[in-house]
Write a structure and sequence with these properties.
Blueprint lengths: L1 H26 L3 E7 L1 H4 L9 E7 L8 H9 L9 E6 L6 E2 L2 H10 L1 E2 L13 H16 L3 H5 L6 H23 L5 H11 L6 H11 L6 H4 L5 H26 L1
Parallel strand pairs: 2-3
Antiparallel strand pairs: 1-2, 1-5, 3-4
Helix pairs in contact: 5-7, 7-8, 7-9, 7-11, 8-9
Length: 254
């Protein structure tokens, strides 16, 4: 199993380099740099559960025409890996494009430059921006599926990835909220065991991490029947408690 995963990563790396070369030819002088992002950059990549994340920094006054078509063409460079490709793009000032706050953090701390060009200056998001982005991501991408995923009694093939992501998300949410950085799921879960948020069941999270590491199937998490609503409520309560503590400290210093 490990050899197969290593082979996949080697093939994915070759695809990523083809994507970088493609965008370089397509965008020309307005392309400042191409970055490898996500778990391919900060660690913990899973051939089953991970996306292939690429970041494009552009040097132009406004969004170039035809970006949707260019991204579609990049996906078509490989019939298998193209399905997993996710492209984030924008200018260093982030006046436009698709380069959300959390992905900017990932780019700044872990992004692997593929063209080896002078690194553009990108403003680091503030604490308030990071916290707001995390809450918005939860409301937009995770809360809407809690009822659906939490009611499952069996997993279809296309449900395994979102289910495991959802079970793991409290770890990533809490890690980035506290540290203002992005890291692998492995490190986020390790951090969760240090802070142990009250009411958060760590067993399904640990098992979901084992799934990403190809140690067990997603069904081994489902059999635990974690209450996803309760998990997220515990995570959000932990975040709010931290905010209250910080506010109290600030008032005491003023």
């Amino acid at each position: 199993m490990g050899d197969k995963n290593e082979f996949n990563i080697a093939a994915i790396t070759a695809y990523v380099l083809r994507v970088a070369t493609f965008f370089d030819a397509r965008l020309g002088s307005i392309l400042a740099e191409v970055y490898q992002l996500g778990s391919l950059a900060h660690g913990g990549f899973s051939a089953v559960y991970s996306d292939i994340d690429i970041g494009l920094l552009l040097n132009c006054p406004e969004p170039p025409a035809g970006m949707a078509e260019a991204i579609s063409a990049a996906k078509n460079l490989d019939s298998e890996y193209g399905k997993k490709l996710s492209v984030f793009w924008g200018n260093p000032e982030y006046n436009w494009g698709r380069l959300p706050v959390i992905d900017r953090l990932d780019l700044l701390d872990h992004g692997v430059p593929l063209m080896r060009r002078p690194k553009p200056k990108v403003r680091r998001p503030s604490k308030a921006e990071i916290h707001q982005a995390l809450l918005e991501s939860f409301e937009r991408s995770y809360r809407p599926r809690l009822a659906e995923l939490g009611s499952l009694t069996r997993l279809e093939t296309d449900q395994r990835k979102p289910y495991i992501r959802n079970v793991l998300y409290p770890a990533r949410l809490i890690y980035t909220w506290d540290t203002l950085t992005v890291a692998s799921n492995d490190r986020a879960v390790e951090y969760l065991h240090k802070v142990r948020p009250p009411g958060l069941d760590l067993e399904p999270i640990d098992r979901a991490l084992a799934c990403r590491q190809h140690k067990c199937p997603a069904e081994d998490v489902l059999v635990l029947a974690p209450d996803l609503n309760a998990q997220f409520e515990a995570a959000i309560k932990y975040l709010k408690a931290g905010q209250s503590l910080q506010t109290a400290v600030y008032k005491g210093q003023s």
